[in-house]
Amino acid sequence: MASFSVEEFVGNGVLKELLPKLLDEGWDDVPTMKLMNAEDMDAVNMTQQQKDAMEIRSYLHDRLLMQYGDRLEASKKCLPEILNLSHEDLSSQFGMKRGHIARFMDRTNPCTETLPKPYNLPSRQFSSTSSGKSSTFKSYESMNSNKMKSMQRIPVFRNSPSYDKSVEGSLADFKIKDGYIFKGIVASAPAEPRACGCVQPPPVVDNVAPYSVIETISVQKLAPEYKIGMERLVKSKTPPMKASELWRDKPAILLCIRRPGCIMCRAEAHRLYAKKPIFDALGVQLIAVLHEHIESEVKDFWPRYWGGVVVFDQGMGFFKALGGGKLLKDKFISGFVLNPRAIANYRRAKAMGLEQNFKGEGEIKGGLFIVGPGRTGIAYEFIERNFGDWAPVTELIEICTQLQNQQLGQEESYKSEREYEYVHRFSKFTTSDSKK
């Protein structure tokens, strides 16, 4: 278990009393809170016991083992001490199950992709500003100059085995290497033979959906971006709005979820939202799109597995766009039981230890869009060809980085033009004065 609810993350231990202070300082979501360094912790006057608790809970959250947070923290041991305990001690002292012990002792962090090293993360206390419009792949939100400064951050637990890989530095580990092949700006996992080739997978489109298809889709907001202490869901029923309002001022990643109770969908959402600090730095918001509104399912899904905005696409416009104008569907037998890749995807999600249910419609496949601000268009599209296919985070970060770099280049060009114009006017003015 690993929830993105801040209240569940801090549990009933010594961090609970710090929640108001954390909120005031901008540490208002779990992915960002896990990046606190020694200076950040000293700024909120954390005790050593609270620092140890943050280390333990971050380690457990990475391994989806938060159910042991209160018990491990109550032992008043630091993480290195706990990691040196025997399997028998972990079982007897904390009631840890055998499979969970194996995951706990695996210091390579098997449940999540680590943040790139070294990666410069912006301060949470700065906010981004919107920019003007341009063509697709070129116009992305400009970032506050303070956010874009390289910040040298010191790991809180540099000598701890849980942080062998630092979260500081650059995007080098997520950089697309030479020879990497994108399928244009449409990507999908390859199809594999089913039932010895007797069953053919449904076809997928090769071209990106037209922007005009998605901009007028009617959506309804079901949940806002999660922050500490906010209402669990939108209380009053919000009126429908055009989807283009979602990315009017800021680019967005739209994760189209097949079924929020599906373990593979929950695992994908959890994995993507865990990278929120990176997408914050790139000026990109995270939005989940549902094609079915079951209130109990939304409550189970948000913010435990996803802390971003959740919207309801009643007309299934985004899902039809992924299928080239019609819904991309597959049957349980042909699409899952007889599909080796789908079964492998299920096992991958199952290994993360997430809960699941079978409520709702589960045959309509999802996918993902990256959409630029305003009317700049669709920058990237991923199609769930097999049940449980995930868009590669490497590709998402690469696309968002390229777009941001191009936007920054446009801003520099505009700034240079304005400076040239100013100098030219000033020189004309001084020449005119000298003639007089």
Can you give me a brief rundown of this structure?
The chain has helices at residues 6-10, 19-24, 30-33, 38-43, 48-62, 69-74, 79-83, 87-94, 98-105, 145-148, 211-215, 263-273, 276-281, 295-301, 317-322, 332-337, 340-350, 393-435; strands at residues 186-188, 218-223, 241-242, 252-257, 285-290, 309-312, 367-371, 378-383.
CATH-assigned fold name of the domain at 186-403: Glutaredoxin
Overall SS class: alpha/beta
Proportion of residues in β-strands? 5-15%
- CA radius of gyration is 24 Å
The sequence of SSEs as H and E is HHHHHHHHHHEHEEEHHEHEHHHEEH
Query: In the CATH hierarchy, what is the class of the domain at 186-403?
Result: Alpha Beta
Written description of the protein model:
- Residues 126-139 have a biased composition (Low complexity).
- This protein is of the alpha/beta class and 436 residues long.
- The protein has a domain at 186-403: Glutaredoxin (3-Layer(aba) Sandwich), CATH 3.40.30.
- It is built from 18 helices and eight strands.
- The chain has helices spanning 6-10, 19-24, 30-33, 38-43, 48-62, 69-74, 79-83, 87-94, 98-105, 145-148, 211-215, 263-273, 276-281, 295-301, 317-322, 332-337, 340-350, 393-435; strands spanning 186-188, 218-223, 241-242, 252-257, 285-290, 309-312, 367-371, 378-383.
- Strands 1-8-7-4-5-6-2-3 form an eight-stranded mixed β-sheet.
- Strand 5 (285-290), helix 14 and strand 6 form a beta-alpha-beta unit.
